[in-house]
Amino acid sequence: MRYEEIRGEIGAGTAARTLPPWARRVLEEVAAGESPVPAVRHPLGFLCLPVERTGDYGVCLHIWTPEVEPAPSTTSSVHCHSWDLISFVLYGTVRNVRMDVHDGPDGAARQVFEVVSRGDVDELRATGRAVHCSPGPSTTHRTGESYTLPAGVFHSTLIEDGQDAATVALGRQTPGGGDLSLGPLDIASHRVHRSRSDPGEAVRALRRSARRIADAHPPEGGPPAADPSPDPPGGPRPSVPHPRRHRSARR
User: Per its UniProt record, what InterPro entries does this chain match (predicted)?
Assistant: First the structure.
């Protein structure tokens, strides 16, 4: 499934029936080494599978899991996108907290970084713009629900009710916008290399996520689906392929 088809399913209210089995197949294929889609540790704390990158459109699976050590972050979880987000929650509880960010050098605690992504490298450019930041309204989204977030809105995403959650994230680039992150005042411009998760950890995480999807979306009129990809004797095969180069845009 591609961007327009997934967006159509969400708009028609049929995503809870169609997206979980599709996402589960994607996870199983990547875990088995049958797909070139990489599993990349994202600096915002999740495992990112970039399924589609076509012009201004992108589709990713975002997986929050205890199976993979989070990537270190040099700034903070407060950020805004240069693209409009549509997201469908496969399982778990996701809370988005919008942040009130305004200029004010007197007593300002953070500065704005511009994030320019090329392949697996994020260049974080210190702008010198000092800002105040405080939590604003928040919204909570549970299994089977979808939500939108326009470009340019500073926010932070939290996972509630445990460490497991996954979403199908759709991004559409908007003209004139930028990917921004808030960080300490005393950090200069720098670069961060995104890394693959350990292959064995990635396989365990993807299979765990596939099981969570099956448990959260059992076939109609039947019991939860059985795990289709049990680990082979001696543990999982480290079969996640090398990532292809793509525009990551802090997704």
Answer: RmlC_Cupin_sf
Cα separation, 165 vs 149, whole angstroms:
18
Domains held by the chain: number = 1
How far apart are alpha carbons 136 and 97 in whole angstroms?
6
Is 146 part of any domain?
yes
* CA-based nearest residue to 25, from 17, 15, 35: 35
Which of the 8 DSSP states describes residue 242?
P
Is 84 a member of any domain?
A: yes
In the structure, what pLDDT confidence band is assigned to residue 171 with cuts at 50, 70 and 90? very high
Is 244 a member of any domain? no
Q: Is the pTM for the entire model greater than 0.90?
A: no
208-235 pLDDT per residue, tens: 999 999 999 998 755 544 444 444 434 4
Asked, for residue 217, whether it belongs to a domain, the answer is no
CB 58 within 8 A of CB 7: no
For residues 138, 142, 147, 153, the Cα torsion angle rounded to the nearest 10 degrees is 30
User: What CATH number should be reported for the domain holding residue 145?
Assistant: 2.60.120.10
The closest alpha carbon to 22, from 38, 39, 6, 4, belongs to 6
Best CA proximity match to 158, nearest among 214, 213, 76, 227: 76
12 vs 186: CA distance, rounded Å: 48
